[in-house]
Every structure is written in C-alpha cells, then in structure tokens.
Amino acid sequence: MNRDNPDLPGARPVPVPETDASVVGLLRQLTREVPSLFTKELALAKAELLASLTTLKAGIAGVAGGAIVLLAGFIILLMSVVYGLSMVMAPWLAALIVGVVVMIVGFAMLQSGKKQFEPSHFKPDRTLDALNKDQEALRRRVS
After folding, report:
1. Where are the transmembrane segments (predicted)?
2. Which of 46, 27, 34 is nearest to 134 (CA)?
3. CA 102/CA 109 separation, integer angstroms
4. What is the pTM for the complete model shown?
5. Is 18 buried (19+), middle (13-18) or exposed (0-12) by CB count in 10 A?
6. Which parts of 86-124 fold into alpha helices (H)?
7. d(CA 55, CA 117)
8. How far apart are CA 114 and CA 86, in angstroms?
9. Rg (Cα) of the chain, in Å, rounded?
C-alpha cells in the first residue's frame, strides 16, 4: 500500500520542499540551520581537543618512563667517565668537566623539547577550517 499517495485513505502528506527564495525565507532558513551548525562545530572542536589531549597524555607518560630509565643508566655511565678521567687528572676536576658537559647537553635537549609544547601544535585546524567554510557558505547564501 502506498502511504505517500494523498488520494488513498490513511496516507501521509508528502513534504513539499520550500522554494521561498525571498530574503525573509532565507533568514527563516538561516535561523533554523545556525543552531544546528554551531552544535556540530562545537562537537567537532571537542572531539579534536580530546584527541589532542589523549595523544599528549600518552606522549608525556612515554617520555617520563623513558627518561627515568635513561637517567639511571646515564648516571652510571657518567660515574665511569669520572673514574676514567680521575686516572689522568685530579678527581674533582674530572667530576667538574663531566658535570659541565652534561649540563650543556641537557640544556640543549631541554630547549629542543620545549618546542613540542608550542600552542600551534594544539590548534584545532579542522574545526577552524570548517568554521571558515561555513562562514563563506553563509555569506554566499545571504548575499
């Protein structure tokens, strides 16, 4: 049985697409679509930020665990370098030289790592792109 045929009993009316192209019609359509658009854009931004935060958490945990193990091994290696140098110079001088070299290397590594936390790495690019496209579409519709 065809329920979309208006001539039959119990039939549902077929929705007629709006063809009102006047300014009032366009504004009415705009007021219906804008809240939905904002809701979808906010959901996209939230999903993007959650994905960034999850990646950041995993990265921090991996870096912290690896840093602890590396630090233990590195301290032992540095002790062996100090012991080796103390055979050819005073032990305090050997420790001083090794300490200064390690601090310089550590500072360079710290500066390199800070670059990973720049705000540009956490920018929701897809959301901003979608908002720009929506803005352009609205401008074309209204004008």
Report:
1. 60-83, 89-110
2. 34
3. 11
4. 0.40
5. exposed
6. 91-114
7. 12
8. 35
9. 32
Given a contact cutoff of 8 angstroms between Cβ atoms, the answer to whether 18 and 104 are in contact is: no
Length of the chain as a residue count: 143
pLDDT on residue 9: 55
The low-confidence residues of the chain, meaning pLDDT below 70, are 1-21, 121
For residue 7, what are its two tokens?
């001539």
Residues 4, 11: contact at Cβ < 8 Å?
yes
Distance, in Å, from the CA atom of 51 to the CA atom of 140, rounded to the nearest integer, reads 33
The predicted pLDDT at position 27 comes to 81
Non-local CB neighbours of 14 within 8 Å, separated by 6+ positions: 4, 6
Nearest-10 crossing angle of helices 23-85, 91-114: 170
**pLDDT score for 10:** 56
**Which is it for the CA torsion 40, 43, 49, 55, positive or negative?**
negative
